[in-house]
UniProtKB/TrEMBL annotation:
Source organism (scientific name): Marinobacter salinexigens
Gene3D superfamilies per record: Aspartate Aminotransferase, domain 1, Type I PLP-dependent aspartate aminotransferase-like (Major domain)
Subunit structure: Homodimer.
Protein name: 8-amino-7-oxononanoate synthase
Co-factor(s): pyridoxal 5'-phosphate
EC number assigned by the record: 2.3.1.47
Domain Aminotransferase class I/classII large: 37-377
Residue positions binding pyridoxal 5'-phosphate: G105, Y106, S175, H203, T232
UniProt cross-references to InterPro entries, sorted A to Z: Aminotrans_II_pyridoxalP_BS (IPR001917), Aminotransferase_I/II_large (IPR004839), AON_synthase_class-II (IPR050087), AONS_Archaea/Proteobacteria (IPR004723), AONS_Proteobacteria (IPR022834), PyrdxlP-dep_Trfase (IPR015424), PyrdxlP-dep_Trfase_major (IPR015421), PyrdxlP-dep_Trfase_small (IPR015422)
One Pfam family this sequence matches: Aminotran_1_2
Residues the record lists as binding substrate: R18, H130, T349
């Protein structure tokens, strides 16, 4: 048998050991962590909708009508009117022909990719794609070719030299870097080489583009340019679950083939109703996105002036590059001592030597919250003085 305890010990010694913090109370910037009040800059609740009174009311009001449990899979007797209405709402919101509701983004990526590519096909995947995309690729048994991050020229060469069914998959916004995929160019080469383009917009939906319709909409692209859009509902939308949206024939195909859709219990239908309420809010509430944008630009100017190395991001994901695992942990620890929660992200989530602090902003952060973060960062700047920055 493998020595599991020894592997854990090794992780501890290399600064890679992971622990869980115990949070109580609702998700919001003011968190109670291990019983202590903390100001959090690490959630993906970008619009502050995870604890929005309107969404909570929608959930409470839905329960008498829907009950709690999903009770069966969608293809047995679990496909509730509430799920169906959410799918129609999501299709309308993303300006797509149809949509399919999954239980999580992880399951959506696993199910969609493994259904749309098979043994003998080739999947081209950005080197920095999310773990769930990587796992979906592996599950498909297709040939996997990873292309250098956002390198359309390299991808184009690979596509030109590959025959058969081709699928290109990318994050819309990269989860640990905050930068965006060059979707216009990707759409162009995919069309030219007859490759199916799949975009996982987990961090773009709700935040980017007109009415928060995401990175594809922000680039002015349509379903014709990017046939498959995957989005999660647990991040900016503030509820739970995920969706895929695109042409009807593809959604129909996924209902037949996506195993993570078929062989799992449907989400509690009340969640679907609360999610519809949240989408309504996202569509009409531009003020949240505007405030979030102001926090982001102010943070970038001030943190850069302090000598911190930020990444090429204009999204709510604003990592501070550190490099060394221990230095990233020390910085995170020092901030924690000042009551601020900013998590260190280490390998294998990011490449070796690229440990970082992943700062994320929410529309529910105030400018006073931002000032607290900046003051703390200013007082901790010396911790990185002797560190080799990776970028
Ligand atoms: C978070 C995330 C997922 C997984 O979504 P869940 O709904 O949390 O399972 C998928 N892709 C990307 C890029 C993500 O950041």
């Amino acid at each position: 048998m493998r020595n599991f305890a020894e592997e854990i010990e090794q992780r501890k010694q290399t600064g890679l050991y992971r622990t869980r913090r115990l949070v109580s109370g609702p998700q919001q910037p003011e968190l109670t962590v291990n019983g202590k009040p903390m100001l959090s800059f690490c959630s993906n609740d970008y619009l502050g909708l995870a604890n929005h009174p309107g969404n909570l009311d929608a959930l409470r009001n839905a329960l008498p009508e829907t009950g709690l449990g999903g009770a069966a899979s969608h293809l047995i007797c679990g496909h509730h009117t509430a799920h169906h209405q959410l799918e129609e709402r999501l299709a309308a919101f993303t300006r797509r022909s149809s949509a399919l509701f999954f239980s999580t983004g992880y399951m959506a990526n696993m199910g969609v990719i493994s259904a749309l590519a098979a043994r003998g096909d080739t999947i081209f995947s950005d080197r920095l794609n999310h773990a769930s995309i990587i796992d979906g690729c592996i599950l498909s048994r297709a040939t996997i070719r990873r292309y250098p991050h956002n390198d359309v020229a390299a991808l184009e060469t690979m596509l030109a030299n590959t025959s058969g069914h081709k699928l290109v998959v990318t994050d819309g916004v990269f989860s640990m870097d905050g930068d965006m995929a060059p979707l216009k160019e990707l759409a162009r080469v995919c069309k030219h080489y007859d490759a199916l383009l799949v975009v996982d917009d987990a961090h773009g939906i709700g935040v980017l583009g007109p009415e928060g319709r995401g990175s594809i909409a922000e680039c002015g692209l349509s379903e014709d340019d990017v046939p498959v859009l995957i989005g999660t509902l647990g991040k900016a939308v503030g509820t739970s679950g995920a969706f895929v949206a695109g042409p009807e024939v593809l959604m129909d195909y996924l209902v037949q083939k996506a195993r993570t859709y078929i062989y799992t219990t449907a989400m509690p239908p009340a969640i679907a109703i609360a999610t519809c309420a949240s989408i309504d809010l996202i569509e009409r509430d531009n003020a949240r996105r505007d405030h979030l944008g102001s926090l982001i630009s102010e943070f970038r100017v001030r943190a850069t002036a302090m000598g911190y190395t930020l990444m090429d991001s204009r999204t709510p994901i604003q990592p501070i590059m550190v490099g060394d695992n221990w230095a990233a942990m020390a910085l995170s620890q020092a901030l924690e001592e000042q009551g601020l929660l900013v998590t260190a992200i280490r390998p294998p989530t990011v490449p070796v030597g690229e440990a970082r602090l992943r700062v994320t902003f929410s529309a529910t952060h105030s400018f006073e919250d931002l000032e607290r973060l900046l003051a703390a960062l200013n007082s901790c700047r010396h911790l990185l003085d002797n560190t080799d920055l990776a970028v």
